[in-house]
């Protein structure tokens, strides 16, 4: 999986934890991180059956939080560029029920990952997301949010740890909840990236 920066000394992580304590009145006990990416070769070919050569960045997204007992999921984004409101609350999905996309749009990426998470059932939790990836900058802030969310859920209620299935679930979340027909490159490199390495992906298979 993607190798994180040193979260112990991360200002981004510290800021997210402060917001969690202020918003929810308690410390976050779980933390997850996922990187953005830059693509070196093969722009727009991942969804056309070609080859791409992305590399994970040290810029990334964190998600910190804690489980709750009331079956409610409450999430705050620290991004001033995200659409309002910056706090959402909804019920954790129960067996036979499902989440639905809506407003604000930023929350759909998180909802989609919860819906397509391969472990579970997902309990209630409080969380704060923070990122230093510029929105709309072509560095895959959406995939980083999806993968950070999935990694957070793996701590909350572990799945089988299949990394390819994790990337595919995050891609499916973006397709079905954000309405973006993206290829697999962004999610794959955010899950699989390693420091100092680019990753050649054959998107034909």
Q: Would you write up a description of this structure?
A:
There is one protein chain. The protein is an alpha+beta fold and 205 residues long. Helix content is 31%, strand content 22%. Helix 3 (141-156) packs across helix 5. The model has no long low-confidence stretch (mean pLDDT 90). The chain has a five-stranded mixed β-sheet, with helices on both faces. It has helices at residues 11-24, 106-116, 141-156, 163-177, 185-192; strands spanning 30-39, 51-52, 54-67, 72-77, 87-91, 125-131, 201-202. The two termini are 20 Å apart. It has a single domain (7-202), classed as 2-Layer Sandwich (Ribosomal Protein S5, domain 2). The protein is built from five helices and seven strands, in the order αβββββαβαααβ.
* Integer tally of domains: 1
Largest sheet: 5 strands, mixed
Which CATH top level class fits?
Answer: Alpha Beta
Number of strands: 7
Which class do the helix and strand fractions yield? alpha+beta
Measured on Cα atoms, how large is the radius of gyration? Answer: 16 Å
SSE sequence, one letter per element: HEEEEEHEHHHE
The coarse overall form would be: globular
CATH architecture: 2-Layer Sandwich
Indicate the CATH topology: Ribosomal Protein S5, domain 2
> Please, how many helices?
5
**Helix content, binned percent:** 25-40%
Low-confidence parts: none
The percent range for strand residues is: 15-25%
Instruction: Record the strand order, biggest sheet.
Output: 1-3-6-4-5
Give the overall pLDDT as a whole number: 90
Organism: Certhia familiaris (Eurasian treecreeper)
GO molecular function: ATP binding; galactokinase activity
Domain GHMP kinase N-terminal: 108-194
Pfam family, one: GHMP_kinases_N
């Amino acid at each position: 999986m993607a190798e994180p920066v040193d979260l112990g000394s991360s200002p981004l992580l510290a800021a997210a934890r402060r917001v969690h304590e202020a918003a929810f009145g308690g410390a976050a006990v779980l933390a997850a991180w996922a990187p953005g990416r830059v693509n070196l070769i093969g722009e727009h070919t991942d969804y056309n059956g070609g080859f791409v050569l992305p590399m994970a960045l040290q810029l990334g997204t964190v998600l910190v939080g804690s489980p709750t007992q009331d079956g409610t999921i409450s999430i705050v984004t620290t991004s001033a560029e995200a659409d309002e409101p910056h706090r959402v609350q909804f019920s954790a999905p129960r067996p036979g029920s499902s989440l639905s996309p809506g407003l604000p749009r930023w929350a759909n990426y998180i909802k989609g990952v919860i819906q397509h998470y391969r472990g579970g059932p997902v309990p209630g939790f409080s969380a704060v997301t923070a990122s230093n990836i510029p929105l709309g900058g072509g560095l895959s802030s959406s995939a980083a949010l999806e993968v950070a969310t999935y990694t957070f859920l793996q701590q909350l209620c572990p799945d089988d740890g299949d990394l390819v299935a994790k990337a595919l679930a995050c891609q499916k979340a973006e397709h079905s909840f954000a309405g973006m027909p993206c290829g697999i490159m962004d999610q794959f490199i955010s899950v699989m990236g390693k420091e100092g390495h680019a990753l050649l992906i054959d998107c034909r298979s």
